[in-house]
Design goal:
Blueprint: H1 3-11, H2 17-30, H3 49-53, H4 66-70, H5 75-79, E1 89-94, H6 96-105, H7 133-136, H8 140-146, E2 157-159, E3 162-164, E4 169-172, E5 175-178, H9 188-195, H10 200-204, H11 218-241, H12 247-274, H13 301-306, E6 316-319, E7 322-325, H14 333-339, H15 341-349, E8 352-354, H16 366-378, H17 384-390, H18 399-402, H19 406-416, H20 424-430, H21 441-455, H22 468-480, H23 485-492
Antiparallel strand pairs: 1-8, 2-3, 4-5, 6-7
């Protein structure tokens, strides 16, 4: 750590100075682009009332550029840039980070799935909020199907002496079918898309969780289990402390507390790991309401693409001494149960994630990379340099400035001829970054801007809501004692040392 960074880390912990630094960093990124409302959405290519108010359409940062899109090189040629050529690993980021990142972003980046010949990527099914719909469902009717209606708890079961969500499917004489109580948990289209071709093994071990692809990866399953356990843990504490509260109040208060815990983790743990910040960031209640960027949340189409962090998944993963191709992370709740939640957390923290760049995506994810490029082109997104400029950054003037990798620079030059023509999605992942960073400058700026302006506008962080009336004195104590994901893990597993788990790579046995 440099002398300047050490000084920032020291002063950032001091009262007053720390608050000022906290506000400065947040506002630096939150003010990177003009605040919402954005003039445009995916509704029309010009300003309309529908485009300004109908959040079923995804927002967009820059106008469509059909002429630029038409000039782009052939899609398959560009897609080959992402193919993994070596098993390149991150500098200091653990596998737990991409586990969390996918689970977190899947909850609000919900592009509406349409038949292939109708897919324009214009619509979404998002609540546009950080609301823990991963475990609570996307509306109140679906939430009700997941509740036990006993002491404020979510439905759960004990497997291998550990708490898990209940199973989604049941065995019948005619085969596996979704349990009747969960038939309205997902839309028919989403259920068929996710489970239509699923194996019996996957169905048999799938859990009833808030969103349809909550069982799609081991990371999603892990985080759903941790936060379900945390909800039930909180509900149990509240029931003991306030025995006169009914089920409804216990549930609603536990949910509010749990959502704020996630908001704190996003700001003080997740973003701190991403951004070049060497002091604690905090989600300070009420602070955002004083800023001009405090506006209604609206997910932009660029962010449904930004988080396609497929190269964070390494070529192989190892748990309990068993090394497998990383494709084994998909649809594998059986392996989750065999490893156990404690060891899964610990061992994910003790192996490095992949290195975020082009040329490092495992083969099983290449079709998704290709689909991402297709989506960006269908939405007629502008160039990488235009997005840099939009976010207040200097334009890249040469391929060598974009990347020090001579081979990659030459490939990009052959494809695009001029660095101004490089696609936004390609440039995001091709952009170089140093050993103390985990992604390029534009990616960091966009992620931080999005996280701060979406998380800190959450109604639970409003000054007139963030109080003991909302959370209870006990709830405030739980919130104040939760600084990162490690605290959730320690409370809900057999792990006792919070420093043994986290987004930063730890050396250890896997």
């Amino acid at each position: 750590m440099s002398l300047l960074n050490k000084a920032s880390a020291f002063f950032g912990k001091l009262p007053g100075i720390g608050d000022a630094l906290n506000n400065r960093v947040i506002n630096k990124y939150a003010n990177a682009v003009p605040p919402r409302p954005r003039p445009l959405s995916m509704a029309e290519p010009y300003v309309t009332w529908r485009g300004l108010t109908d959040r079923r359409y995804s927002g967009r940062h820059l106008p469509a550029d059909p002429a630029y899109t038409a000039s782009l090189p052939e899609l398959n040629e560009v897609a080959t840039l992402f193919k993994q050529t070596e098993d390149r690993r991150a500098n200091d980021t653990s596998l737990l980070f991409p586990f969390f990142a996918q689970w977190f972003t899947d909850s609000f980046l919900r592009t509406k799935w349409k038949p292939e010949n109708q897919q324009d990527f214009a619509h979404n099914e998002s609540n546009h909020e950080i609301d823990l719909c991963q475990i609570y469902g996307t509306n109140e009717e679906r939430t009700a199907t997941l509740r036990s209606f006993q002491e404020g708890r979510l439905k759960s079961q004990i497997l291998h002496d550990e708490e898990y969500p209940v199973n989604l499917f049941e065995e019948t004489a005619s085969g596996l079918r979704i349990k009747p109580e969960f038939e309205r948990l997902y839309t028919p289209a989403n259920f068929d898309r996710v489970f239509g071709n699923a194996s019996d093994t996957h169905k048999k071990n799938a859990f009833a969780v808030g969103i349809e692809h909550g069982n799609s990866t081991m990371g999603n399953t892990l985080l759903n289990i941790l936060f379900l356990r945390e909800h039930n843990h909180i509900a149990g504490l509240l029931h003991k402390q306030y025995p006169d509260w009914d089920d409804e109040r216990l549930f609603q208060t536990a949910r509010n507390i749990n959502i704020v815990l996630l908001l704190n983790i996003v700001i003080s743990d997740y973003i701190v790991h991403i951004a070049p910040v060497d002091f604690p960031l905090r989600a300070v209640p009420g602070k955002a309401e004083k800023e001009h960027w405090y506006r209604t949340n609206w997910i932009a189409v660029e962010f449904a693409l930004l988080y396609r962090w497929h190269s964070f998944i390494p070529k192989t993963v190892t748990f309990a001494g068993d090394t497998r191709e990383s494709s084994a992370l998909r649809h594998n709740n059986v392996w989750v149960q065999e490893i156990g939640i404690s060891d899964l957390c610990r061992q994910a923290s003790c192996q490095k994630a992949g290195y975020l760049t082009v040329g490092n995506t495992p083969d099983f994810l290449l079709e998704i990379e290709k689909l991402s490029l297709h989506m960006a082109r269908t939405c007629q997104l502008q160039s990488f340099n235009n997005y840099r400029q939009h976010y207040g950054l200097r334009k890249i003037t040469s391929f060598d400035q974009l990347t020090a990798n001579k081979d990659l620079a030459q490939k990009l030059k052959l494809l695009y001829n001029n660095v101004d023509e490089v696609e936004w999605l390609v440039g995001l992942f091709a952009e170089d970054y140093g050993t103390t960073s985990m992604m390029g400058e534009l990616m960091v700026t966009m992620v931080a801007n999005d996280a701060f302006t979406q998380a800190l506008t959450n109604p639970l962080l409003s000054a007139n809501i963030y109080n003991e009336d909302t959370f209870s004195p006990l709830g405030m104590e739980i919130i104040n004692n939760t600084k990162g994901l490690a605290d959730i893990i320690v409370r809900n597993t057999t792990i006792t040392e919070r420093d043994s788990v986290g987004f930063k790579y730890r050396q250890g046995q896997v």
